[in-house]
Amino acid sequence: MDTIIFIVLLVGAIVAYKGMKPKVVIPVFVLAFVLTALLYNFHVTTQLPLEF
Amino acid sequence: MSNDVVTETQANPDIPTTEPTIWNKIGFWFPHIIILGYAGVIASAFTIQFTQSELPCPLCMLQRMGMVLVGVAALWMIGLALKGRLDYAGYMRATGMMIIAAMLGGATALRQVELHILPGDEGYGDPVLGLHLYTWSLITFIVVVLYSAIVLMFGKTFYPTLPKGEATRWVSRIIVGIFIFIIVANIIMVFSLEGFNWTLPDDPTQYELFHQFGG
Q1: Hey, is A1 helix, strand or coil?
Q2: Per DSSP, what are the bridge partners of residue B131?
Q3: ipTM of the assembly?
Q4: Is there a contact between B79 and B175 (Cβ–Cβ < 8 Å)?
Q5: Taking CB atoms and an 8 Å cutoff, what residues of chain A touch B61?
Q6: Which residues are CB-contacts of B110 (< 8 A; sequence separation ≥ 6)?
Q7: pLDDT, tens digit, for every residue of B172-187?
């Protein structure tokens, strides 16, 4: 998942630097944002192997 | 400047045609400072990773994603400014995107700070200048939010305008090239660390890709 997100970010960086229109850049940005947020949610809600 | 750009600039009343002020020039270099700063931070993290064999945890990786996401917004501003297509709406959009991205990155950094907040906890990894990398990361995200909010408060004052001269374009291209190189390096590094698994382990101890192929 991390690899996929970085690939989406690379695509986002390229389309952004090319100065493409908002209808291209913003969806790629939002996709990268949502994927990162979902991965964050996954990592902070998985149970840690703690024993007390 | 190409004919296309001139035509578009004249057609769009939201692209100023007046002579740029010193503030406009500073506004042009601010996004460059952001992407160069983040490229430096990620390159430092790479150095620590390879010299001290300290593998990045999932939260570290999420912070790098936040940094690159901030960089994507900054790159959009730079790309549009270089092509003479940055209007006020585009400037505000890109600045707003920087705030959103920095808030996500800041949330991941804050989470990691919280994990090591208890007295006696030595934290993850070695501190740099007295603070751990995730604490520095949180500070950079706060700085980005503050910077973005302040330039928006000033309205059109810091609207980025490309300073004259071919040297400016080349410096800009070099900075952007460094940032893109860092993203590509991250892809290679994270793929070798994660391998064909869906996520990184909570405490990575090896490069999964080499382990998967090496048996």
Answers
A1: coil
A2: B128
A3: 0.89
A4: no
A5: 2
A6: B138
A7: 999 999 999 999 999 9
